[in-house]
Write a structure and sequence with these properties.
- Strand 11 (321-324), helix 11 (329-337) and strand 12 form a beta-alpha-beta unit.
- An 8-stranded parallel β-barrel has the order 3-4-5-8-9-10-11-12, surrounded by 7 helices. A two-stranded antiparallel sheet has the order 1-2.
- The model is unreliable at 134-141 and 372-379 (pLDDT under 50).
- The protein has a single domain (5-377), classed as Aldolase class I (TIM Barrel).
- It has helices at residues 43-54, 87-99, 116-121, 143-154, 167-186, 201-206, 221-224, 226-239, 262-275, 307-314, 329-337, 348-352, 356-362, 369-377; strands at residues 14-16, 19-21, 25-27, 59-66, 103-109, 125-127, 162-164, 191-196, 245-254, 280-286, 321-324, 343-346.
- The chain is of the alpha/beta class and 379 residues long.
Length: 379
């Protein structure tokens, strides 16, 4: 099928390592909370992803799949990839995605200090260094929102405590990522994305605001990036260089004192490319203690808010760059055409209308940002 000339760059075939996609539209990885509650992939989440594959996306990325379920899980109904028990459901899901011509990747994640299920169960949260005891402002939140956010801290057995990771803990975490990548390959996935952003455990090492270590994992950007290098090398050793793997990382941290800077991110991107990463998915993060900061990052309200970051990071690497963050198709097409990014990840658009890619191909899709937002808010 031919595609509409207005989006010739966005709808052209793409490549990440050995992975070839029918277009440059990626379904952004998002935490769905649609799992079965025991880490398994049930019918509900299968239909959710299959519908987006039917809609014409080139690549579907399953969001936040736990490498050590239930340890390190960020949401109550998260899916797991930490045991072969999860393989049948995952394999059926990849089969359904492939049936509609899309490719499938899975985002491998450990939430670290944001592991909600660990707090609820009283398990220690894995961190590179003990976090500051200071509490940020919550002036933007209602009393009900505040209660919802702290409910896991007040449940029976809940406990908020941290475990500063030892060298042995780091080695075990690296091995968990490699195990998960191997399991993803056996489940029929075409690639893996390793989550190194959004306040989760790997991003904790990258952020000087959280990483106060004085060993080989702390201090310089090279040291703070070391765990990513070890993860990528372990993954590639386990699954082979012909199985694509990449990182999602923060280009910057808004409203976080001594947080990740764009210069840090550019250097980390180069380091991970040398370690074998096949792409970089450029996101951003903001202070989670400030309600209004959430619409700066990661759920950016500004149109194409992260695109300049992606463009800057791309200048320093030769691997593909995935741009994300409220990017309209017209803007994404131009960005690809001008070499600013190589792929566009869509989240809210594909929640509101899974058939956006098909409509772009047929020329029936028009720009309706307000409609997208209204549909998303009323789901």
């Amino acid at each position: 099928m031919g595609h509409h000339s207005e989006f010739s760059h966005l709808l052209s075939s793409g490549r990440i390592g050995t992975l070839e996609t029918r277009n440059r539209i990626i379904m952004a990885p998002m935490g769905t909370n649609l799992g079965d509650g025991n880490g398994h992939v049930g019918e509900r989440i299968k239909r959710y992803y299959e519908t987006r594959a039917q809609g014409g996306a080139g690549l579907i990325i399953l969001g936040v799949c736990s490498i050590d379920f239930p340890n390190g899980a960020a949401i109550p109904r998260q899916i797991g990839i930490s045991s072969d028990d999860f393989l049948p459901g995952l394999k059926d899901l990849t089969d359904r995605i492939h049936r509609h011509g899309a490719k499938a990747a899975v985002q491998l994640q450990h939430a670290g200090k944001n592991a909600v299920l660990d707090i609820a169960a009283g398990r220690p949260l894995l961190v590179p260094s003990k976090p500051s005891a200071t509490i940020g402002g919550m002036a933007d939140l209602t009393a009900e929102e505040m209660q919802s956010m702290v409910s896991n801290l007040t449940a029976k057995g809940a406990k908020l405590h941290y475990k500063v990771m030892t060298a042995e803990d780091i080695a075990l975490l690296v091995d968990r990522f490699a195990d998960a990548a191997d399991r993803a390959k056996r489940a029929g996935f075409d690639a893996v994305e390793i989550h190194a952003g959004h306040g989760y455990v790997l991003s904790g090492f990258l952020s000087p605001s959280l990483n106060k270590r004085t060993d080989q994992y702390g201090g310089s950007v090279e040291n703070r990036s070391r765990i990513l290098v070890e993860v990528m090398q372990a993954v590639k050793q386990r699954v082979g260089n012909d199985f694509p793997a990449w990182f999602r990382m923060d280009a910057t941290e808004f409203r976080i004192e001594n947080g990740i800077t764009l210069d840090d991110a550019c250097r980390t991107a180069r380091i991970t490319e040398e370690a074998g990463a096949d792409a970089i998915h450029v996101s951003a993060y903001a202070n989670p203690a400030l309600g209004h900061a959430f619409i700066e990052a990661p759920l950016v309200h500004k149109e194409a808010g992260f695109l300049p970051f992606a463009e800057q990071i791309k200048k320093g690497v030769s691997i593909p760059i995935i741009g994300v963050g409220r990017i309209e198709p017209e803007v994404g097409d131009r960005a690809i055409g001008k070499g600013k990014v190589d792929f566009i990840a869509m989240g809210r658009k594909l929640l509101a209308d899974p058939e956006v890619p098909k409509k772009l191909t047929s020329g029936k899709q028009k720009k309706h940002s307000t409609l997208y937002l209204l549909l998303y808010m009323h789901r």
